[in-house]
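User: For a reading group we're discussing how well predicted structures match intuition. Take UPF0056 membrane protein. Before you show the prediction, I'll give you the sequence so everyone sees exactly what went in.
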Amino acid sequence: MSDWISSFVFFFAVIDPVGTLPVFIAVTAQHAEWQKRKIAILAVLVAAGILMFFLLAGQYLLETIGVPLSAFQVAGGVVLFLFALTMIFGEGKPEQEMEIVQEGHETAIFPLAVPSIASPGAMLAAVVLTDNYRFDPIHQVKTATAMLAVLGIVLLILLTANWIFRWIGNAGASIVSRVMGLILASVATTNVLLGIQQFFSV
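Assistant: Thanks. Here is the predicted 3D structure of UPF0056 membrane protein, as structure tokens, for the group to look at:
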């Protein structure tokens, strides 16, 4: 159960469901309520498909091109750590992705499904948390269910976006994003240390 919770928290941090709210509001501002629901469902389904692909085939792709997972884990941890720093000290996820929306790319696929929900960090997490050499199939299934649970929360949040956003506003979404950044920085550091330990067999 503790492993499932850890995976859930990790995916919650990298996906940052609350941080997707302002993006969704901007993307769907001119749409009717039924269209907003359709966009939310489509975005989550596309993101789920992308993340499941990385979860199932990501490690095989790495091995095909000769990249050991330990190296990918260290590189991924560094990238996640830098991403976390931008969430904490720089522009939060809402501000970054709002800029993408303002450039006119207003579709359920971009920027909602990618990179808001299926973020680079989430793709890295899907690969690292299902390492075939560290985790058995049962653990990998649990990781998949944790990821899908987070995506379920994303869908719920998007379907109730107007009500939630009226309650927390831009400032609230930004605060949540920064808290998630702090959690993500801790997880990223752990991944780097585990990758180094695995690579050098210490």
